[in-house]
Amino acid sequence: MVQERTLPTFNPATTQITKEEGLWLYEDMVLGRLFEDKCAEMYYRGKMFGFVHLYNGQEAVCTGVVQSMRPGEDYVCSTYRDHVHALSAGVPAREVMAELFGKATGCSKGRGGSMHMFSAEHRLLGGYAFVAEGIPVAAGAAFQSKYRREVLGDKNADQVTACFFGDGAANNGQFFETLNMAALWKLPILFVVENNKWAIGMSHERATSQPEIYKKASAFNMVGVEVDGMDVLAVRAVAQEAVARARAGEGPTLIEALTYRFRGHSLADPDEMRSKAEKEFWFARDPIKKLAAYLLEQNLANEGEIKAIDRKIQDVIDEAVKFAESSPEPDPSELYRFVFAEDE
Ligand SMILES: Cc1ncc(C[n+]2csc(CCOP(=O)(O)OP(=O)(O)O)c2C)c(N)n1
Ligand SMILES: [Mg+2]
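Above are the sequence and the thiamine diphosphate SMILES. Below is the predicted complex in structure-token form.
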């Protein structure tokens, strides 16, 4: 018998969603899922090297938050589990796949690989290999929006930053220091903890004196909310409120999304630590199936429309692999390029 934390309930009748929006959320989540499945396949075929951390199961968190922002204009900051955050932020799948293959056409020009997706164009502030490393970077991005708007008088500088990180990262000192500054300066930022219950093989309950992370917000006089991270509509509702708060100059929000990764920590992890019962509890809450069922039930989509999206995305992924395979390796003569920002 697994003891799972009670997921907060969400009544979808309290939210407004059009057919177009519903299908877009579905498409974005399917893109994340099918991309990661293909990534696993390519990894086991020896097409990429180093650690690769997949996002399967957590799609509703990324989609619910990023699609409540203005992708390409607002900032997104990720972790080493970053492929899907990059995709939702608008980085083309072919550029993410090429980066995984270490090719010159990758979004980090083949220099970064799985844990270092970056795109200035799409305002993706990066994947970060060190746990919690992105948190202060995201606060810096939020600070510059506020500074440009309030000090330099740039009325267009109303960008919001979403900062994603894990439950394990929320025990790192950078989390506490950054939340303090962000609340003090009322920075336009969403701190999104993807609580998937595990930090590699360390259970969150075992590592954390107060496992309800959202409650830590009150220590900084910040709004803290928990949300069912397997329900994209619930995440979206919470994110929309937090984005509105940030844009209105009312400061940050700490969102704790309760979620689960459907695969091991990385593709090198045999995933033997987690119990079958626990996995089954969460597999039954697959966010993609949940949204599809909702769209059908509400007559916002029919089976044919759902299947058409699945097929369309599969084509996008297949094309991404072809592009990555046929792209050139970075030229060794360019080893020292792209070290400084001025060399674009
Ligand atoms: C500063 C630092 N310490 C330790 C590690 C090794 N490490 C890599 S991932 C990880 C677990 C982090 O778990 P969590 O923040 O919950 O994210 P998740 O992997 O569950 O998405 C650890 C300890 C690291 N990368 N950086
Ligand atoms: Mg975790």
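The longest strand covers residues 189-195.
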